Amino acid sequence: DLVLAEELVRRAGLAVDNARLFRKAQEALKSRDEFLSMASHDLRSPLTSLRLQLHAVRRDLQPGDERKRASEKLVSRVESMERQTDRMLRMMDALLDISQMTAGRLELKRQKVDLVELVRGAVGTLDEELRQNGVQMRVHAEGRVEGEWDRLRLEQVIDNLLSNAVKYGKGQPVDLTVSVDGTTARLVVCDRGVGIAPEDQERLFERFERVRLDRNVGGYGVGLWIVRRVVEAHGGRVSVESRLGEGSSFTVLLPMRGQAPAQPGCAQETG
Ligand code: ADP
User: Fold this and answer.
1) Is the Cβ atom of 160 under 6 angstroms away from ligand 1?
2) Inter-residue long-range contacts of 131-138, CB under 8 Å, 24+ positions, other chains counted
3) Is the pLDDT of residue 113 over 90?
4) Is the ipTM of this complex over 0.90?
């Protein structure tokens, strides 16, 4: 009976859709749990160190015979405590930033920014790390590429893309290209590292998504999500091209002029 057959097919389709939804929900929960366990692990280790240092300070404060040596030790302990608390503060700031961005608040402070200068600056900041890892990072750009952008947010975008290129770049050279295409600025970050399988490429831009849950490579899977949020808030786009085992190339396109918000008030006289 045709009607019955059609009904069965429809129901089977629904069941498949439900199973797919269920699987997606399960995956989302799993990556959230993984994120929470890694984040709490990373918050715990500076805290633990801080607690040990405090214990030692209390011990050193008890008057001993060698006061001078004790006070030198004390200074270095306090310095270490400061470093640990700074680290924690940075992590907390990052978490707060993420939750604010999730809540939909992303206000841009636009000003005139030179993308080439930002990229060179970011490479300069990474200098020590690059040297330690023997990674070559080459910037290909001519002159200035200026736009009305949020400097700090764009620095975040560049930092995330560069640090991924180093993390997943297998120590191979990384090429950064800044160019202009009409009224759009283009930044391409190209590595020759582990690459990303086609089926994983789109979901990397989701929050908490990581392809390799490798504890030796630090991260929470939020970097690319931030990249996309910031780039899209600027009216731009980010995309990836990659081949597994050969490398990845991330392209950021940014309109050089922010869309002017509609001006309230009277019509302008023209001509
Ligand atoms: P993470 O903190 O895990 O690096 P990101 O959001 O920056 O988070 O990236 C998400 C995932 O995308 C990474 O875990 C990694 O699997 C993959 N990925 C990002 N950049 C690259 C790259 N340049 N090469 C290969 N894989 C990458």
Assistant:
1) yes
2) 133/166, 133/171, 134/171, 135/166, 135/169, 135/171, 135/172, 135/173, 135/174, 136/173, 136/174, 137/162, 137/165, 137/166, 137/173, 137/174, 137/176, 138/173, 138/174, 138/175, 138/176
3) yes
4) yes
